[in-house]
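Hey,
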Amino acid sequence: MNRAPTRSTSITAATLVAFGLLASCCTGDPTGAPELRPGHDQCAECGMIINEGRFASALRVVKDGRAEDLLFDDIGCMLNFEREPDSPAATARFVHDHATGRWTDGNTAVYLMADRDRLSTPMGSGIVAFADRAAAERAARQHDGRLHDYPGIAAARKAWMEERYGKPPAGR
């Protein structure tokens, strides 16, 4: 016996279609790391083409009701972007593990900040990330740098920028 679709069946189907469309709006896997195409993708902060994936980072944000991955050529660019008052809030952060080249969770990564002459990065931030603390400690000794968690690296980058360029105007 065939039955006509009920209202609840139609609502369920519409909900599934809506979730499928929302998931397809991300530039990468909506539950995992974003897709990066070195030599093609552009940094959301400075506009440079991302050529070296091992320095790249990403933010997953919601803009206009859609999930979107914003890619950066240098972790410093991502940190600068997040400091802007009109930047959308991140729902996820991704960084490349400097030791393995694989994406890792940017909220739990260990960050190394060293003098830009000792640790060269695409935009000169001297910041790289590691999934493994022991690897980060080895690199810190090699590059004479300091290790940070995510809040710590955000504060260190802010202080570095203000030392060099001054504090932004009030309200920023």
